[in-house]
Design a protein that fits this description.
There is one protein chain. This protein has 2 domains: 198 residues, Rossmann fold; 65 residues, no CATH class. The chain is built from 9 helices and 12 strands. The protein has a 6-stranded mixed sheet with strand order 8-9-10-3-11-12, sandwiched between helices. A 4-stranded antiparallel sheet has the order 2-1-4-5. The radius of gyration is 19 Å and the shape is globular. Bound molecules: adenosine-5'-triphosphate and magnesium ion. The site of magnesium ion has 3 residues, from helix 2.
């Protein structure tokens, strides 16, 4: 663990935050082999995320944010280092640990709903794959539509929903099997500013209600400061931790905090850091 990580972790312990580590990246590194040679995407990095923590990864384009998220999710195997999720090693040789992977739900920039399935069937699909009964699946889909605020749209097709609503459905689908961990890669990047603000409020509420741990990737500094307990700023490729910022505004936060001097100071500081990279 780096000194900066250690400081952040002990600070949280002092502040009484849940101290159990949920996700642990231990000297995790990724080098892609391509026809043009090796691409060093992520340098040896340590990241610890505690249970119920909301961690945001911020950094310049191409610095390895998506790569880190894919390594946490088990979609991608690190070149070296270890990933542990809820106490399980994620990889045993070339085999993924089933239990660790089942702890995680993923939401990408595009909702990626299946166009030939209704909203409720999209949301319930992970449960079907887990062989739950139809009645149970639909009940859960209904509850989740309520949670994410799209009640009444259960029978609609994805194309009939707005971008923000499709993204809500994608979040509902990721939550369908009660994952301990939600991994989100610029989930609101394609939305207009107002819808995005609204989704940030909703996501905070969903996170508080569901009690899951979130790693959230964004390019937006205000979005990061609004959502995060902790912001990990990554350096340009190969990505490594540039700085860690604890954000201690009390919850539930509303958009009005964006006008507070302290909020603006954190935004300015992060912008300065990004610009000086
Ligand atoms: N499958 C791959 N094969 C080769 N290189 C890759 C692969 N995936 C990512 N890379 C490279 O690794 C680096 C990190 O990519 P990554 O997608 O993780 O960046 P990012 O921080 O998510 O960027 P953005 O903010 O633009 O989404 C980039 O240089 C990218 O070109
Ligand atoms: Mg990315």
């Amino acid at each position: 663990m780096s000194a900066i990580e250690e400081a952040a972790n002990s600070a949280a312990a002092v502040s009484g935050g849940a101290s159990k580590i949920e996700i642990e990246l231990d000297q995790v590194e990724k080098i892609f082999q391509t026809d043009e040679g090796d691409v060093h995407a992520v340098a040896k990095t340590d990241i610890n995320v505690r249970q119920r923590e909301f961690v945001v990864l911020l950094g310049p384009s191409g610095c390895g944010k998506t790569t880190i998220l894919r390594m946490v999710s088990g979609l991608l195997k690190p070149t070296s280092g270890n990933v542990r999720v809820a106490g399980h090693e994620l990889w045993h040789g070339d085999t993924r640990d089933r239990e660790a992977v089942q702890e995680m739900g993923i939401v990408f920039q595009e909702a990626n709903l299946f166009p030939w399935l209704s909203i409720e069937k999209n949301i319930a699909l992970p449960l079907k794959l887990r062989k739950q009964s139809k009645a149970k699946r639909l009940k859960k889909a209904h509850e989740l539509c309520e949670l994410v605020g799209i009640t009444g749209f259960e029978k609609r097709w994805p194309r009939e929903l707005s971008g923000g609503m499709r993204q809500r459905a994608a979040i509902a689908r990721a939550l369908s099997y009660d994952p301990e961990i939600l991994l989100m890669d610029e989930p609101f990047g394609a939305l207009d500013a107002m819808t995005r603000d609204q989704m940030n409020i909703e996501l905070q509420r969903i996170w508080e209600t569901s009690g899951c741990t979130i790693i959230f990737v964004t390019h937006s500094i205000p979005e990061a400061v609004f959502l995060a307990d902790r912001i990990i700023l990554l350096s340009p490729r190969p990505g490594r931790i540039h700085s860690v910022t604890n954000v201690t505004f009390k919850r539930s936060r509303d958009m009005a905090i964006q006008t507070e001097p302290e909020f603006q100071e954190i935004v300015r500081d992060l912008r300065r850091q990004l610009e000086s990279m």
